[in-house]
Specification:
Blueprint (H helix, E strand, L loop, with lengths): L14 H52 L12 E5 L7 E3 L34 E7 L16 E11 L5 H7 L6 E7 L2 H41 L1 H11 L18 H50 L6 H30 L9 E2 H11 L8 E6 L4 E2 L3 H18 L3 E9 L2 E8 L20 H4 L9 H11 L3 E5 L6 E7 L8
Parallel strand pairs: 7-9
Antiparallel strand pairs: 1-2, 1-5, 3-4, 4-5, 6-8, 9-10, 10-12, 11-12
Helix pairs in contact: 1-3, 5-6, 6-10, 7-8, 8-10
Pfam family, one: HisKA
InterPro entries: HAMP_dom (IPR003660), HATPase_C_sf (IPR036890), HATPase_dom (IPR003594), His_kinase_dom (IPR005467), HisK_dim/P_dom (IPR003661), HisK_dim/P_sf (IPR036097), Sig_transdc_His_kin-like_C (IPR004358), TCS_sensor_his_kinase (IPR050428)
GO molecular function: phosphorelay sensor kinase activity
Length: 503
């Protein structure tokens, strides 16, 4: 059994070679088109030359007949002069002798002249061109103009009236006074084509040599030009190859010239910066998660070890209460971490039915436990506020905002919901100490807690606001901290969903 290797492609793999081959192929097509056009143009010019030569000969023959001169046989083009009342031709030449017109004319005689002659309208001299069949010959020679089979050729002719000539001139031509002479001139395109063929062949040879040299030069110039143009790309490739996940700090050098390579280098640097930021954020997230998990675990472990070391002096209900509280804290932190992981990997989705955020906020207000602290929680809404989304995720978002407000509020929390243009605007405002302006965006980062929150025993894990903002972005909305004179006010803006009545 013969093993067959991978089939090799004829198209080169290098960009430089591909571009050079493409440029050479394009140039070859253009040169072939130019050569074809030159060839056709030479033949067209040769045909025009043959027609012009025949026209000049026709005019000269007519002038000779009007002077009473019988044209000579030597002529650059075939011609024949025939007249009414004559069996033989008046004159012929230029190759017509090959058809033996001495005893009988070859081309048809004209009709008799109209008597009296029509008045001269002073029109310019003109002639008529018609296709005519030349009789075939059985004894033609290879060098005969018409060949053995004759053929059909364009023939120019013009008439000369004998009554317009003097009697002496008519007698010199051998025609009667009432006869009409017709001058035929045969147009031989191949006569001019023979010359054109010689010129075309010489031109084709020169074009072929020049074309081959041009193709080689074009391919070489294109190859080296692309090679020079791709040097910055090769430098970018070498540098980006050294970038690793653990050290994405390398940056490519941006060329001074403003062209596509500059845009590519800028884009790559931006991508590397995003990777660096993501790696740094991931390292920070892992460190913060480890720190947050270590604190309750340490407290839980210390409590259990003390209880086990001194079982007779341990307040077991208090130890169990402490263990349960730290376990709940671990459970909440783990759930938040899992939710953030899911939000990072899931794409935004919308629920099948709109969610009434006003009804949801009112329900949470009624069910929220406020027994531990003397706080007042109110909800103000004037109309239903519908938005597309998942009800559980909206509930988690609102609960996180209320939890954050409850940890910092002094006496009251106010929830307001309004329909504003095409948005549902929900605000959660507390009367606590507020947030410094420089921390307005930092509080939405993961595991960020301000100093006053860290000093509390019931302080959060620093993930609530980060989860709330991610849920807002997941529903094509925004969550921001709006400036207030007293306390902190978080504003949620979600695209409004049309109700069934509005549809």
């Amino acid at each position: 059994m013969n093993a067959t290797g991978p089939r090799r492609r004829w198209w080169p793999g290098s960009v430089r070679a591909r571009t050079a081959l493409a440029a050479a192929s394009t140039a070859a097509v253009i040169l072939v088109g130019i050569g074809w056009w030159v060839h056709r143009d030479v033949y067209r010019e040769s045909t025009q030359i043959a027609e012009g030569q025949a026209q000049e000969q026709l005019l000269a023959l007519v002038d000779q007949l009007e002077e009473g001169v019988v044209p000579v046989r030597r002529s650059p083009v075939p011609y024949e002069v025939v007249a009414t009342g004559r069996r033989a031709a008046v004159a012929y030449g230029g190759g017509m002798e090959e058809l033996d017109p001495g005893t009988r004319h070859v081309l048809p005689a004209p009709p008799k002249a109209e008597l009296p002659a029509p008045p001269d309208d002073g029109a310019a001299w003109g002639y008529t061109t018609i296709p005519m069949r030349i009789p075939a010959r059985h004894d033609s020679e290879p060098w005969d103009r018409f060949g053995k089979d004759g053929g059909t050729y364009p023939v120019m002719y013009d008439d000369v009236r004998a009554d317009e000539l003097s009697s002496a001139r008519a007698a010199a031509l051998g025609v009667t006074a009432d006869a009409q002479l017709r001058v035929y001139v045969v147009v031989l395109p191949h006569a001019g084509a023979d010359i054109a063929e010689t010129i075309t062949e010489a031109t084709d040879r020169r074009l072929l040599r020049a074309g081959l040299v041009s193709l080689v030069l074009i391919a070489a110039v294109t190859y080296f030009a692309v090679r020079i143009a791709l040097r910055p790309v090769e430098a970018i490739r070498v540098l980006t190859a050294s970038v690793t996940a653990s050290d994405p700090r390398e940056r490519v050098t941006i060329p001074a010239a403003g062209h596509e390579i500059t845009a590519l280098a800028t884009t790559i640097n931006t991508t590397l910066q995003r990777l660096d930021n993501a790696a740094a954020q991931q390292r920070r997230f892992v460190a913060d998660a480890a720190h947050e998990l270590r604190s309750p675990l340490t407290t839980l472990l210390a409590s259990l070890e003390v209880a086990l070391a001194y079982p007779e002096r341990t307040d077991w209900p208090a130890a169990a209460t402490t263990a349960a509280r730290q376990t709940r804290r671990l459970q909440a932190l783990t759930e938040d971490l899992l939710l953030l992981a899911r939000l990072d990997t899931r794409t935004p989705t919308t629920g099948p039915d709109p969610v009434d955020l006003a009804a949801l906020a009112s329900q949470l207000t009624e069910q929220y436990p406020l027994a531990e602290r003397p706080l007042t929680l109110t909800c103000d809404s004037t109309a239903p506020a519908h938005a597309h989304g998942i009800p559980d995720e909206y509930e988690r978002l609102l609960r996180n905002l209320i939890d954050n407000a409850a940890r910092h509020a002094a006496h009251r929390i106010q929830i307001t919901i309004r329909n504003q243009d095409a948005w549902v605007v929900l605000t959660v405002h507390d009367d606590g100490p507020g947030v410094p302006a420089e921390d307005a965006e930092r509080i939405f980062e993961r595991f960020v807690r301000l100093d006053d929150a860290r000093s509390r025993d019931d302080g959060g894990t620093g993930l609530g606001l980060a989860i709330a903002r991610d849920l807002a972005h997941r529903h094509q909305g925004t969550l921001t901290l709006t400036p207030r004179t007293l306390g902190a006010c978080f504003e949620l803006r979600i695209p409004q969903a049309p109700t069934s009545a509005e549809k």
